[in-house]
Write a structure and sequence with these properties.
The protein has 156 residues and is mainly alpha-helical. The protein folds into two domains: 5-104, Orthogonal Bundle (Multidrug-efflux Transporter Regulator, Chain: A, Domain 2); 115-156, no CATH class. It has helices spanning 5-9, 13-20, 24-32, 51-64, 69-76, 87-114, 126-132; strands spanning 39-40, 46-47. InterPro entries: DNA-bd_dom_put_sf (IPR009061), MerR-type_HTH_dom (IPR000551), MerR_fam (IPR047057), Redox-sen_tscrpt-act_SoxR (IPR010211).
Length: 156
C-alpha cells in the first residue's frame, strides 16, 4: 500500500492534461524523461502534485523558446523535491535561461545582419566567396558556416 499522500489524493493525469493543455501521452513522455515524477496509487494510476502543473507549463514554455529536453531537465533538477518551488526558485532558473536567450538573440541579430553577405561558406555568393573564403579555407576551422558561427574573417 502506498505511503505517499499523493498516491491517494494527488491529481489524475486527466486533470493535469486538462489544466496544461498537454495530451496525456506528452505527460507520460515527460515522465519518462524525468521532468515530472508522479506517485502511483494502489491501482497503479499516476497521481501528480499541483507543482507538476507548473513544471509542465515551464517545460512547454521552455521548449517553445528552443530549449532541449536535456536543458530543461537540468534546470528542473535544481528545484527542491521536498517542497513546492517558490518564486525565488523559479527566478533563479529564469535568470539562467534569460542569459542563454540573450546570447541566442545576439547570435540571431548578428546572423540577420550578415545574411546578405557570405555565410562562410555555404555559399550565397561565389563572387564574395573568392574574396572571403578562397580555396574554402574556412573548412579548416571545422564544419558548418564558420563565419556565421563567429569565426573571424581573415583576409590575406
Amino acid at each position: 500500500m502506498p505511503t505517499n499522500r499523493l498516491a491517494n489524493r494527488g491529481l489524475s493525469i486527466g486533470f493535469v492534461s486538462e489544466r496544461t493543455g498537454l495530451p496525456t501521452s506528452a505527460i507520460r513522455y515527460y515522465e519518462d524523461e524525468g521532468l515530472v515524477t508522479p506517485d502511483r496509487n494502489v491501482s497503479g494510476h499516476r497521481r501528480y502534485a499541483r507543482a507538476d502543473i507548473r513544471r509542465l507549463s515551464f517545460v512547454m514554455i521552455s521548449q517553445g523558446l528552443g530549449f532541449s529536453i536535456a536543458e530543461i531537465r537540468a534546470a528542473l533538477a535544481t528545484l527542491p523535491d521536498h517542497r513546492t518551488p517558490n518564486k525565488g526558485d523559479w527566478n533563479r532558473i529564469s535568470k539562467k535561461f534569460g542569459c542563454i536567450l540573450d546570447e541566442r538573440i545576439e547570435q540571431m541579430q548578428s546572423l540577420r545582419a550578415r545574411l546578405d553577405g557570405c555565410i562562410g561558406c555555404g555559399c550565397l555568393s561565389l563572387q564574395s566567396c573568392a574574396l572571403y573564403n578562397p580555396r574554402d579555407r574556412a573548412a579548416k576551422r571545422g564544419k558548418g558556416p564558420r563565419y556565421l558561427m563567429g569565426d573571424p574573417v581573415e583576409l590575406d
